[in-house]
Amino acid sequence: MSTDHASTGRNPAGHGPADHASAGPAGFTRRALLGTAGAGLLVGAGAGVAGAVAYDRPDRSGRAAAGPGGALGAARMPFRGEHQAGITDPPQARVQLAAFDLAEGVGRDGLRTLLQRWTKAADRLTAGEPSEEFDNQVALDAGPCSLTVTVGFGATLFDKAGLADRRPPGLAPLPAFPGDALDPARGDGDLFVQIGADDALVAVHALRVLQRLAAGTAALRWQSAGFARTPGAAAQPVTGRNLMGQIDGTNNPRPDEDGFAAKVFCAAGGDQPAWLAGGSYLVFRRIRMLLDNWEALPVDRQERVIGRRKSDGAPLGAPAGAGERSPVDLTAQGPDGTLAIPADAHIRVAAPAANGGAAMLRRGFSYHDGLLPDGSPDAGLLFLAFQNDPGKGFTPVQRKLSRGDGLSRFLRHEASGLYALPPGAPPGGYLGQQLLEG
Predict the structure, then answer these.
(1) Torsion sign (Cα): 9, 149, 153, 403
(2) What spans are recorded as compositionally biased (Polar residues) (predicted)?
(3) Enzyme catalytic residues
(4) What pLDDT band is residue 49 in, cutting at 50, 70 and 90?
(5) How much is the pTM?
């Protein structure tokens, strides 16, 4: 879970707008990272997060909010920029994830046309404007609601579009991990889309527009819906909880840390192609939580599996009054002389120090899709992890967690995907232009 992955934000106090024009370390635009915490549970981890921090979502255009929607509905996330939106932005209350497969014979020109159409539609929808085509008016009376549209390319797209020589090495297939029970029909795909919004209708509407624009060019392969805490639901900014009831997202990489951008975004050079500079790699995992088994454990056993107190997120062994961001002391002992944080506790196994410093930016959402045939909940985490190299981020961490993390007994990895996310759409251009015309 890595409850050990910190939440951060553009406005830690949760009051008032941030400095929209300023840039963070390493030159990337500050995209309000309050709650890149929602990301939490480790991935690869281990599990799940639904947590997001409570925060305001100001209109980052710098203008007074106008048009339909209240204060929450009027919040706008710029679509264009150095990086795609939806990576370092706070997790919204709702997400729609989907993957598409290209139709036979579409080729490079057909892919270009599709990406141009998607870019034009996303540019309008994220501004709170109707799309010019296939607008079913479902979101007609809503504002932008912090809508973001993020697009990625699967490994199979490059052969189908005649771009095999431009496929980045980082899209090499992920290895099989112990305990995986993956359904190919619910993972992978040529094109991946992440649509986030603080209103479910706005997110569903945007996906429907993109799906109709793709008709004849790409068909929907799979779709999943998720949720996180709604902004303002908590009285003060706090890290959210996942479906296991754990505070989740305490130690995500922070934008004010040295090397943050290098952990998340790609730079040209080495084996990284020039077209991917400013982009990122995304690992998606659908991780079902065995909630009936988990909830049968007494709270003190749950805490030992994670390595943190459930009430306040403080690491086990920390003094009374400590909080979730108190330093983790892996040498701390209990009254009986045993380790306060067990040897197989999630936060011990997932610690960067135990994984060669491997890091990724987690931005996960919970899901609950009813009951399975045996009556158990079909619920858990839609895990999303952004990084500049999956081979140095997700893969080594997940390999270790799958073999030594006590939390893995309560998780099932049921779907997986790996995608290369191009940089943001240039002014007047379209998503993927660097790949197709570079």
Answers:
(1) positive
(2) 1-10
(3) 248
(4) very low
(5) 0.86
